[in-house]
Amino acid sequence: MGSHEGRTYVVTGAASGIGAATAAALAAAGARVIAADLAWEAAPRAGEVEPAFLDVADADAWVALADRLAAAGGGPALDGLVNAAGITRRARLQDVTADDFAQAFAVNATGPALGIRALAPLMPGGASIVNVGSAAGATAHYGIAYGASKWALRGITKSAAMELGPRGIRVNLVSPGFIETPMTASAPEAFRAANLEATPLGRPGSAEEVAAVIVHLLSPEAGFVTGTEIAVDGGLTGHGGGLPIARAMGAAHPDE
Ligand SMILES: NC(=O)c1ccc[n+]([C@@H]2O[C@H](COP(=O)([O-])OP(=O)(O)OC[C@H]3O[C@@H](n4cnc5c(N)ncnc54)[C@H](O)[C@@H]3O)[C@@H](O)[C@H]2O)c1
Predict the structure, then answer these.
(1) Which of 48, 134, 187, 206 is most buried (most C-beta within 10 Å)?
(2) Element at 135 (helix H, strand E)
(3) Closest to 88 measured CA to CA, from 72, 71, 105, 113
(4) Which residue's alpha carbon is nearest to atom 42 within ligand 1?
(5) Where are the beta strands (DSSP E) in the chain?
(6) pLDDT tens across 9-36, in order?
C-alpha cells in the first residue's frame, strides 16, 4: 500500500463505513489523519487519528477547519482530502421532495466542493483529493435525489481536477458498488439481493477494499492520475446491462 509516513490527510465520514476504513488504513500506513464527521466520537482510535466535529454542508465549518490546520502547521501542511461523508435518500420519482434533493446535494455534492475550496490552499504540489461517488452516479438509480447528487459529484471532481492541476494537486473519484456498511445495512433486503444479482463478482465489497483504492490514489504512485474515476463495484457498472443478457444466452464462458 506504500508508506504515508509523515503525511497529513483530512477524511470526512470517518466515523463509519468507507471513511472509517480509509482513516484506519492511512493511520496504519503511518499518516496523521484528521477524522472529520458529525459523529466524530465514533472515529477509529488508531495511530495518529485525530477526531474532529465537522458538518460538511457548513461552509463556515470548513473555513474554521482550514484556519485551525494552517495555524498548527505553519504553511502548506495538508497532503490530501478524502470526501467520504454521504447520506442516502431513497425516495422514488413520484415521492421525492425538494428537501430530499437539497439534503442529498448539500452533503454529497456541495459539501465536497466546499471542502476542496477551503483546504486546497493548504496543499502543496503532489497533494491528492479523492471524492467518494457511487455506482448510482454512473447509472439510472431508483433513489433519484441520491443518484443525481452523485452524478453532480463527478462533475465537481472533473472541474476541481482541471482547476487544481496547474498547482500539481490531483482530484479523482472512487465509485463503490454494493459495500457492506451501516448505510447499506439500512436498505431493504431486496436492494441487497438485486445488487448482488447484478454484480459479476456475486458478492458485496468491503469498506477495506474501497479504502485500499483510495489510499493508492492518495499516494505518489498514482502521480499522473487525475480527473478520472475508478469503480470499486465487483463489475456492477462495467457490464452495462450485458449480464442478464449473457445469463439468458446461457453462456458463462466462451468455451461452453
Ligand atoms: N456502502 C455502499 O454500498 C456505498 C455505495 C456507493 C457509495 N457509497 C458512498 O460512500 C460514502 C460512505 O458511505 P458508507 O457506506 O461508509 O456510509 P455510512 O453511513 O456508514 O457512513 C457515512 C458517514 O458520513 C457521516 N456524515 C453524514 N452526513 C455528514 C455531514 N453532513 N457531515 C459530516 N459527516 C457526515 C455519517 O455520520 C457517517 O459516519 C458515502 O458518500 C456513500 O454515498 C457507499
Answers:
(1) 134
(2) none
(3) 105
(4) 86
(5) 8-12, 32-37, 48-53, 80-83, 128-132, 170-176, 179-180, 205-206, 229-232
(6) 999 999 999 999 999 999 999 999 999 9
Q: Which atom of ligand 1 is nearest to the CA of 136?
A: 6
Q: Which 8-state DSSP code applies to residue 124?
A: P
Q: What's the pLDDT score for residue 90? A: 96
What angle (nearest 5°) sits at the alpha carbon of residue 90, between those of residues 86 and 96?
110
Spans of all domains in the chain:
8-248
What's the grid cell of residue 224?
499522473
Which CATH number applies to 8-248?
3.40.50.720
Q: How far apart are CA 190 and CA 89, in angstroms?
A: 16
Residue whose C-alpha cell reads 496504519 in the numeric block: 28
> Which residues participate in catalysis according to the annotation?
146
Sign of the Cα torsion 244, 88, 114, 122 reads negative
**Ligand 1 centroid distance, CA of 215 (Å):** 17
Q: Are 103 and 97 in contact (CB under 8 A)?
A: no
Opening angle at CA 57, ends 135 and 73, nearest 5: 105
pLDDT of 91-143, one tens digit each? 999 999 999 999 999 999 999 999 999 999 999 999 999 999 999 999 999 99
- Counting ligand 1 atoms within 8 A of each CB, the residue from 10, 11, 16, 173 with the most, and so the one to mutate, is 16
Per DSSP, 32 falls in state E
- Taking CA atoms, 45 is separated from 34, 51, 86, 147, in Å, by 11, 8, 21, 32
